[in-house]
Amino acid sequence: MDKFNDIGIDNKLDWDRIEKLMRIGMFAACMVLVGDVLIGYGMHDSSKTGMEWFLSAYLQLSDTRMFWSAFLGFIGIPLEALCYFGVYRLIVPKSQKYAHLYRTGILGVLAFAGCGVHVPCLSTCFFYKYMNDAAPEIAVDAAVKFGKYFLLPGMIVFFLFWIIQHVAHIAAFTKGLTPYPKWCWIFCPAVGMAAVMLFKFLPESEVRNAITAAWISIGNLWMFVGLLVMAKKVKVGDR
């Protein structure tokens, strides 16, 4: 017990601070959602196939949209990650084991999600757009190589930490190691993300592409909103 590093966070429930983190997290998720919509709103060229088809949607984007999408994610994603500590505070009084795992996931997301995934993703789109103007015959291969070198490593590391965070989140809630009812495990980002990806089964449209591009930010919004709404009821029963 004494060996657990609480990084200066009290392991007692502080509902005011938890709810404040949830509200800030909602704001951050909305910020990132706007950035995701900016990059996702568009259509693919149906005359193309494979990676050329996938990347074709980004040829329509202005430099301004790419910049603001990258900037909003650069600021908003770390802010989302810091607000995950609201969930950490829910877990730590009853399970330092799962709190420790969850915190490990937070730190990985904080370190890699914004600068390691989101910004390099926009950089790859930007690179492809201008490569297509300069040398269209090699643009796709060059963009894929660029992505493998500068985007893929961050994606792999990010998702490893993301999985750790979600395993800890779901396990802590389903085992009753938070003040919430066990069924509230559904308020984890993965559930919201999975629901959003069902839109992929709809015919392609600008709106569908924008929504599915925002799958992670919508998943985070689902978590923050759901836990904040339920906190009102949980606090009453906790008295």
From TrEMBL:
Record keyword Repeat present: no
Kindly provide the name given to this protein in its UniProt entry.
DUF998 domain-containing protein
Entry keywords, A to Z: Membrane, Transmembrane, Transmembrane helix
Q: Which Pfam families match?
A: DUF6796
Superkingdom: Bacteria
Q: In which organism is this protein found? A: Butyrivibrio hungatei
Q: Which InterPro entries match?
A: DUF6796
Could you list the residue ranges that cross the membrane? 21-43, 66-92, 104-130, 150-171, 183-202, 214-231
Keyword flag Lyase: no
